[in-house]
Amino acid sequence: MRTSLLPGPVHTRVEHVWGTVVSIDVRDPGASDHAVDAAWAAVRAELHRVDAIFSTYRPDSVISRLRLGGTQVVADDVADVIDRCLEARRTSGGDFDPWQVSGGFDPSGLVKGWAADRCANILRQHGLRSFSIDAAGDVVCRGRVAGRGWPIGVAHPDDPTSVIAVVDVLDAAIATSGTSQRGDHVIDPRTGAPASGARQATVVGPDGALADAYATALVVSGVSGASWFSGLPGWSALVVDGDTTTCWGRAFDRDLEARES
């Protein structure tokens, strides 16, 4: 995502956390550095709090202790993430299942989008209205840019410097999962082997957590097994399987029409 190339003033902040990079672009007209800094301080605190709870790389995190078989009263945040994982597993027919992974329950395929939504709420609470949050490729957008949704490019699976689509994201989330950039990190929960349903899947919808999870699930299921997704109201997807691109939903209609004309 290259929102810094959009016209008009922008306030950008970047944080290294979760072993990756999280950034915000704020485009509120008249927003001061002081206002953005105050909001960003609260976002940074939330990012590191989420890491302390959900990191599978920190032995002291709540999730790590649960994975080792520890029993404890979990915070509301953990209970909420578990509920969201159950929802994604149910909707996807098991194509997303963080209980069927090596080492025990691992919600990493949902938490980045979930945290991005929480950070969006924090920015709103600080009075900001037009911004994007990029949590290692899971993007949540609020407000408009130049009277339209945020134009977000979907990277080509064979060339991360080019895009296969540009979609306007308006008060929604977009998430991409695939094997081209990070290798075979998506696991088929039924077999324990690397997923082979699709090379890449991008999902656009109203919820960051579910967008994150559904993109992972579509890499597992591929086009042939994704009947569970095609009927979801308010959701769109672009799936790359071999050299074939398949789309559902309205989010990609304008871009496909432009590329086909």
Automatic annotation (TrEMBL):
SUPFAM superfamilies associated with the record: ApbE-like
Signal as UniProt keyword: no
Record carries keyword Magnesium: yes
Requisite cofactors: Mg(2+)
Record-listed E.C. numbers: 2.7.1.180
An example molecular function term from Gene Ontology annotations: metal ion binding
Swiss-Prot/TrEMBL catalytic activity: L-threonyl-[protein] + FAD = FMN-L-threonyl-[protein] + AMP + H(+)
Protein name: FAD:protein FMN transferase
Keywords: FAD, Flavoprotein, Magnesium, Metal-binding, Transferase
Enzyme class: transferase
Record organism: freshwater metagenome
